[in-house]
Amino acid sequence: MNRIPALLGPLAAAALAATAIAGPDVDENTSVRNDAGSTTKTAKVCKGSGTVSSASGALSLGLLTGDPVDLFLVYVPNPSLFSATVATTAPANLDTQLFLFQVTLDANGEPTGAYAVAGNDNMAAGTPLSKVTFPVGSTQYAPGVYALGVTVSGVRPYTYSTSANGNRVPQDMFTTSTTGLMLPTSIGANLPLRSWNGTQTLAGSYRISFAGTTLISQGAGTAGCGGVYAGSCYEPHSPRGCNDAQCCEIVCGIDAYCCSATWDTNCAQIAYENCTGCSSAPTNPCPADVNGDGTVNGADLGNVLNAWGTCQ
Ligand SMILES: [Ca+2]
Ligand SMILES: [Ca+2]
Ligand SMILES: [Ca+2]
């Protein structure tokens, strides 16, 4: 079925004006909620194709009302080449920590649990910034989806064990170390991330630089409506469905093609016209982000060029 794109004219002009870069910088503020969440279901998914250079965002004080942790989902093709380093912070003395988790997937390829791999508080004596790698010599970690959490020192990830009387007991997922790699506790390696707890001392913004890390393909999950790897409802993309379940259901109720074949420009147009009450309804849409990965780069231009000449 050939569908005529409705928006390519202005999109082409906007994308051609954008600067193409290799390895985009992911910004948590392009999330639906303008914040990378603290679980695999609410994390900022670094979506697209190719390498990812960095992730940036901000933390604020308060475990309940503030923003104690930001979690990013990335793909690690070769764990031995991976590193994540807090490159800059504001204020400069922000005492960061990084925690790396292995992510398990359900039958649709959607993230479920997150299991402790490694963490770091200070990459060296005298610096509060952090760097995490896989444990040296570890061979049990396969290429796949991993979650990287950034917190300020004092806030740590927890899981729950179950006591003999059935009560859930919080358990620290990592050993402690000031400058070395924090490793999984036996419980942390076998039970998934449940919560974050501790005491924050400072808040601020950060930029994490990556090595050996790639974006996650928008087609990685097959859940369709509401899948965390699905594209934005308001931008065309190849896989069917979009990432806001409510908006997706509305659009596919109007045009089933959007959930059976591909989310083309007509589907994005229907979303703009009918999803104003949905959680992902844009207030300041970025039309140059053609593939809806939250970044304007060469991939958007490629989508435009691939569709060149199809209007009739
Ligand atoms: Ca944040
Ligand atoms: Ca957050
Ligand atoms: Ca630190």
Quick gist of this model?
The protein has helices at residues 8-17, 186-190, 245-254, 257-260, 265-274, 298-306, and strands at residues 25-27, 44-45, 54-59, 69-76, 83-90, 96-105, 111-120, 131-132, 144-152, 155-162, 168-172, 195-198, 204-211. The chain is of the alpha+beta class and 312 residues long. Bound molecules: calcium ion (3 copies).
Question: Could you say how many structural domains there are in total?
Answer: 2
> Helix count, per DSSP?
6
Subunit organisation of the chains: single chain
Helix content: 10-25%
CATH architecture of the largest domain: Sandwich
Descriptive keywords:
single chain; 312 residues; alpha+beta; Jelly Rolls; five-stranded mixed β-sheet
Give the SSE layout.
Elements: H1 8-17, E1 25-27, E2 44-45, E3 54-59, E4 69-76, E5 83-90, E6 96-105, E7 111-120, E8 131-132, E9 144-152, E10 155-162, E11 168-172, H2 186-190, E12 195-198, E13 204-211, H3 245-254, H4 257-260, H5 265-274, H6 298-306
Parallel strand pairs: 1-3, 2-4
Antiparallel strand pairs: 3-13, 4-9, 5-8, 5-13, 6-7, 6-9, 10-11, 10-12
Bound molecules: calcium ion (3 copies).
Task: Describe the model.
The protein folds into two domains: 8-20 and 223-306, no CATH class; 25-211, Jelly Rolls (Sandwich), CATH 2.60.120. The protein is 15% helix and 27% strand. The chain has six helices and 13 strands. The protein has helices at 8-17, 186-190, 245-254, 257-260, 265-274, 298-306; strands spanning 25-27, 44-45, 54-59, 69-76, 83-90, 96-105, 111-120, 131-132, 144-152, 155-162, 168-172, 195-198, 204-211. The strands form three sheets. Strands 1-3-13-5-8 form a five-stranded mixed beta sheet, with no helix packed on it. A five-stranded mixed beta sheet has the order 2-4-9-6-7. The chain has a three-stranded antiparallel beta sheet with strand order 11-10-12, with no helix packed on it. A hairpin with a 5-residue loop joins strand 6 and strand 7 (111-120). Helix 1 (8-17) runs antiparallel to helix 6 and helix 3 (245-254) crosses helix 5. The model is unreliable at 5-22 (pLDDT under 50). One calcium ion binds at residues 28, 35-36, 57-59, 67, 70.
